[in-house]
Amino acid sequence: MRLVFAGTPAAAVPTLRRLAGEHEIVAVVTRPEAPLGRKRILTPSPVAQEAEALGIPVIKAARLDDEATGRISALRPELGVIVAYGGLVREPLLSAPAHGWINLHFSLLPAWRGAAPVQRALIAGDVELGATVFQLVPALDAGDVHAMRVYPVADDATADDALASLAVDGAQLTAEAVAAIADGSARPVPQQGDATHAAKLGLDDGRLDWTESADAVFARYRGVTSEPGAHTALDGVPLKVRELARAQDADPLPPGALRGIKGGVLVGTGTVPLLLVRVQPAGKAVMAAADWFRGLRVADGATVRLDVAAPANEGNDAR
Predict the structure, then answer these.
(1) Contact (Cβ atoms closer than 8 angstroms) between residue 272 and residue 247
(2) Angle, vertex CA 179, rays to CA 159 and CA 141, nearest 5
(3) Strand order, beta sheet including 58-60
(4) How much is the pLDDT for 316?
(5) Which one, of 9, 12, 61, 6, lies nearest residue 28 by Cα?
(6) Rounded CA gap, 107 and 114, in Å?
(7) Which secondary structure element, helix H or strand E, spans residue 281, and what is its range?
(8) Helix (H) or strand (E) holding 261
(9) Alpha-carbon distances, residue 52 vs 16, 49, 110 (angstroms)
(10) Cα separation, 283 vs 85, whole angstroms
(11) Residue 40 pLDDT > 90, yes or no?
C-alpha cells in the first residue's frame, strides 16, 4: 500500500520503521528543524533523521497548509498514517488518500484526547495505559477505532519510560491496522465511554506541591518527567527535581521538610516522605541530592523546608 507518514518525535520512529519494511512510503511529513540544547542548534526531528536513513523523501512543514496539501496529494497516497506530528490534518487533505488517515494515539480513547495523553494519565494516577489506532476525523481524536490495546505500566515509570514502551507496542498495533485496511478486513467501531482531555503541559504543571499526598506528588513527578520537568524551590530559588523515588519505612516529615539520609534526601509530603535522588539547582549541573543537601551546610538541629507555594520568578528561572 502507498502510504504517507506524518510524525515528528522519537515516539513516532518505531512506527515509521515498521511500516517502511512492509509498505511503500511515498513521503514522510514532519515539522521543521527546531533549536535544541544550550546552544540552541537547529536540529532535524527524529522522524526526519530516520526518514533520511531509510531513503524516504521528506516534506518539512510547520502546518499542513495549502502548499503541503498540494505536495502530499500529488503523490496519490492510498492511506495517511500520523503519529504525534504536532499539527492538524484538515480538509481537503483529510480526504486526499483513498482510505483517509489513521492516527496512533497513546491512550485508551476516548480517555485523554489531546496533546499529552500519557503525561495526563500518569498525573491522574492511571494504573493502565494504552494505545489506539483510529480513523482521523475533523473532531479532536474522535474517529472510529481500528485497534486498541491496554498496557500495564510500572508504578515508577516516568512519561519518558512509558512513551518509549508504547512507541514500540504502538508500531505493532499500527502495522496490524494498516494490514487490515490493505486487505479489506478493517471494521472500525465507534469510541465507547466518556471523553477526557489531555491538554498540553505547561511549566506550572511541573511544580510539586509538597502539601499533597506522596502518591499525588509522585504521580505528578512521573507525568512531567522529562518535559516540562518537575520542579520546586528553596527560599524562592528554583530547584529542578530530576529523580524522585518512594522512600522505604521513613518517619513522617512536615510538607517540604528535608532530612539527609544515605542515598538521598527525604522530603515531607502531606502523607509519607519521598526520596530526592537527583536534583539540579538553578544555573548548575544535575547532581546527587545528597551532595546538594550537604552543600547547604545545615546546622545541627536546624530545619530546612522546600517552598510549598510557587516561587514568584519560576516562569523565568525554573527552566
Answers:
(1) yes
(2) 45
(3) 58-60, 24-30, 2-7, 79-83, 101-105, 128-135, 145-152
(4) 36
(5) 6
(6) 10
(7) strand 274-281
(8) strand 257-261
(9) 12, 5, 34
(10) 32
(11) no
Give the list of residues 6+ apart from residue 70 with CB closer than 8 angstroms, or none.
none
In this prediction, residues 100-114 reach a mean pLDDT of: 98
Query: Grid coordinates 540544547 are at which residue?
Result: 37
At 15, is the secondary structure helix, strand, or coil? Answer: helix
**228 CB-near residues (< 8 Å, 6+ apart):** 201, 202, 203, 205, 206
pLDDT tier at 315 (50, 70, 90 boundaries)? very low
Q: Between the CA of residue 76 and those of 23, 69, 80, 102, 309, what are the distances in Å?
A: 14, 11, 10, 16, 55
pLDDT at position 309, please? Answer: 62
CB 79 within 8 A of CB 101: yes
Q: Quick: pLDDT tens for 8-34.
A: 999 999 999 999 999 999 999 999 988
Positive or negative, the CA dihedral 274, 275, 278, 283 is positive
Q: How many CB atoms lie within 10 A of CB 144?
A: 14
| Residue 213: cis peptide before it, omega within 30 degrees of 0 | no
pLDDT at position 125: 95
* pLDDT value, residue 173: 98
Q: What are phi and psi of 230, to 5 degrees?
A: -80, 140
Helices (DSSP H) in the chain: which residue ranges?
A: 13-20, 46-54, 66-74, 117-123, 159-183, 214-224, 289-295, 314-317
